[in-house]
Amino acid sequence: MEIIFGQYFDQGYFLDYSLPENQCIFNQAIVGPQGLLSLLERDLGLNGNYLSTFERKISYQKICKEFLVQFPEAFFSKSFECDPFGVSSE
After folding, report:
1. Nearest one of 49, 47, 51 to 60, comparing CA atoms
2. 66: nearest Cα among 80, 55, 56, 52
3. Number of separate helices (H) and strands (E) present in the chain
4. Structure confidence at residue 72 (pLDDT)
């Protein structure tokens, strides 16, 4: 893949598709800093190993449980009793 990088290409670029050299752009990416970063993350797998949204909500639920053991009169204690997953989602 050919990567054409420019400092300001994230702001948008415009090609004249009426020119023959621009009609068939295959295996070519025109990117700026943000575009290059997302290209590296997607194609080369250079992103971090993050928790999924569901796993993050479960970990928040555990944290809320531990907090409510120490502070049972917290403002969200009754809501947490009724819907622990909903409170941890919020």
Report:
1. 51
2. 80
3. 5, 2
4. 93
Query: Are 6 and 39 in the same domain?
Result: yes
Report the largest interatomic distance among the alpha carbons of the chain, rounded to a whole angstrom.
71
Same domain, yes or no: 57 and 40:
no
pTM of the full structure: 0.47
Choose between 77 and 1: higher pLDDT: 77
pLDDT tens digits, residue range 6-60?
887 776 666 666 777 666 667 777 788 888 888 888 777 777 677 788 889 999 9
Hey, what's the torsion of the CAs at 12, 16, 17, 18, to 10 degrees?
170
Environment class of residue 40 by beta-carbon count within 10 Å: exposed (0-12), middle (13-18) or buried (19+)? middle
> What is residue 31's three-state secondary structure?
strand
Number of independent structural domains in the chain? 2
Regarding whether 28 and 7 lie in a shared domain, the answer is yes
